[in-house]
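dumping this here before i forget
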Amino acid sequence: MQANDGLSKKLVLLDIVHSCCPDRERELMDIFKDMEKEKDDWRQTALDQVERIKKLEEVIEPKSKQLTNVEGRIQVLENEKTVWLGGLSMGKNEEEIAAMLSETNNLDIEGSKTWKDKHCKLFTKQYPYV
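structure:
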């Protein structure tokens, strides 16, 4: 009888715990659905960002090529500058070179050292316009 009574109490306790299971299961299923929706939202956000990156790469590609071309032209101009300075002194002594340079207006002898900074400032400066 005591064994039967103890088993009856355990059965009642199990019934009580089991009766709470559908509520807990429903709660967990709601949490699971919310997490699935959040996962889908994140997946869509990632896909949107991938598309945006592709579009930005398409926009930047011609600008990168243009930048490469401009850098190449700058290199050519730098090389021509050294040829020009070398050609200026070709076949002349120092006095003739000094006389020729003194007759030249607005010549900046130190320009080869500072031109790059001035060049960068020229193209990064913002100008107001109407």
